[in-house]
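Is this the right way to post structure tokens for a design question? Let me know if I should format differently. Anyway, here goes:
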């Protein structure tokens, strides 16, 4: 059971300042094969995503979005709000907050940044993604951007901690069969970079819960 919502954000914020689970936790949900670092001599595009956490009654929820089918590299996929770093952004945190506001209408000032997870390279889009963990004391009215967001998914964080949520899928890609682990979410599934990012967050939360219960 997750810690009560009053202390959860504070504990998670403290945990994010300690050494992170890192690539070891990411690899638990990694497709095979997968490149973890960009080609030598190349400079990937910098981007950031926000992992919005918030309480609903006594349960911590996490918000994800399902992209429109015509979205470039991640069409129809479930992931976190975010995008590329732009010149006006002072850092990756600002990018994640700005993109979340643009995509979901969540005001920047309503989000407390708890910390950063481990950056993750995404080869198909040549992006180095910085995951940013955010906390909302209360969820504001959402205003999804129709051109980018097909669906907003609000899920108890503990859903992803259940063993039956974890599955394996096969996908045909460029003439090859890609086998990957995923988290089931209704009829959909979370896989790839989003699942790897989520895996690190869950690993950190589980470690914190274990410390609480000892």
């Amino acid at each position: 059971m997750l810690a009560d919502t009053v202390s959860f954000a504070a504990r998670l914020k403290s945990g994010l300042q300690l050494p992170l689970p890192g690539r070891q936790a990411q690899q638990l949900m990694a497709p095979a094969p997968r490149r973890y670092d960009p080609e030598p001599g190349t400079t990937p595009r910098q981007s950031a995503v926000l992992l919005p956490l918030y309480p609903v009654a006594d349960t911590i929820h996490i918000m994800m979005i399902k992209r429109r089918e015509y979205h470039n590299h991640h069409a129809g996929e479930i992931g976190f709000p975010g995008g590329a770093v732009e010149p006006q952004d002072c850092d990756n945190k600002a990018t994640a907050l700005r993109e979340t506001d643009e995509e979901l209408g969540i005001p920047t000032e309503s989000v407390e940044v708890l910390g950063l997870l481990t950056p993750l390279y995404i080869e198909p889009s040549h992006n180095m993604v910085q995951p940013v963990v955010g906390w909302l004391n209360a969820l504001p009215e959402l205003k999804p951007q129709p051109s980018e967001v097909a669906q907003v998914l609000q899920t108890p964080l503990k859903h992803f901690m259940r063993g039956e949520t974890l599955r394996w899928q096969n996908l045909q890609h460029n003439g090859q069969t890609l086998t990957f682990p995923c988290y089931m979410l209704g009829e959909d599934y979370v896989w790839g970079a989003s699942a790897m990012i989520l895996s690190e967050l869950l690993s950190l939360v589980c470690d914190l819960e274990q410390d609480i219960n000892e």
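Format looks fine. Someone answered above. Worth noting: Helices lie at 5-15, 22-27, 92-104, 192-213. The chain has a mean pLDDT of 91.
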